[in-house]
User: What shape does this take?
Amino acid sequence: MAKVVLACESESALQALYSLAQEAGLPVFLVADAGRTVIPSGTVTCLGIGPAPERVIGPITADLKLLR
Assistant: This one.
């Protein structure tokens, strides 16, 4: 299955995406940093959505840009 990495503006935007994906019945997982580098422990840094067809995930992530 393809993996696509997208960027969002803030942790609150990530939380909003998490809620939308949950409401759509998608498998979701918020990733919190372990704090072993420069990011404080417990900081939410990533959201995994899927696996699911693009037609289901697409409407939730359509406004996000690829992470570069």
About this structure: The chain has one domain: 6-66. The chain has a mean pLDDT of 93. Residues 11-23 form the longest helix (13 residues).
